[in-house]
Predict the 3D structure of the following.
Amino acid sequence: NAGVMQNPRHLVRRRGQEARLRCSPMKGHSHVYWYRQLPEEGLKFMVYLQKENIIDESGMPKERFSAEFPKEGPSILRIQQVVRGDSAAYFCASSPLTPGGYTGYTFGSGTRLTVV
Amino acid sequence: GIQVEQSPPDLILQEGANSTLRCNFSDSVNNLQWFHQNPWGQLINLFYIPSGTKQNGRLSATTVATERYSLLYISSSQTTDSGVYFCAVLNSGAGSYQLTFGKGTKLSVIP
C-alpha cells in the first residue's frame, strides 16, 4: 500500500512562472490537506479538500494560490506568478475519515519549491 | 487558536545517550502526533498519541491530556535519530481538522 505520493520532489521556477504540485493520497483516503513549511519553521495549514470540494481554504494566501482535488487524479496545488517568498516545502497529507473516527495524518515526502 | 510549545529548541547528544523532548499545548486536544523530519526533509509519523503511553523500539511517548503536555523519549540515541522532532495537535471541537505544529526540537546526535 503506497503512502502519500507527491511530485515532483524538487521544483525550480523563475519569478513569474507557475508552479504545479501534485499529491496522490493513500489508497482509501478521500481527505487531502496541504501544509507549507517555510525555512526553520513548523508546518502551517493551507487547505483541506475532499473529492471535488474545497472544505476549508482559510490558510491559503488570498491571491495566486489555488487547489483542487478532482474526481479522478491527484490533488493539485497551483501557484501562479511565483515570487521568492513562495520558496518553501509543501507537504500533502491524507486521512481516511473526518475527525471523530480519526487515526492521524500521513504525510507525503513533500515538494521543495525554489523560486529563482 | 491553540498554542504548541516544544522544548528544548536544540539538543546535542553523544551517541548512546537518552533524551526527553517536551510538548506543551494550551487547550484540550483530541489528537496529538509526533513527527520526525529527517535531514532529507521527509516527515515521518512516529506516534499518534492523544493520551496514554506508546512504545516503538527505542522511542516511546506519553501524553497527559488533562495536564496538556506530551513527552517523547529517545533511548540509546543513534546518529540516524538526528533531525527535527515536531509535535502537532488537533484542537478539540466540532469540525476541527487543522493540525497545529510546534516549532520543533532540532536534535543532533554525534558519534
About this structure: The radius of gyration of chain A is 14 Å. Chain A is about 0% helix and 50% strand. Residues 89 and 112 of chain A are 4 Å apart (CA to CA).
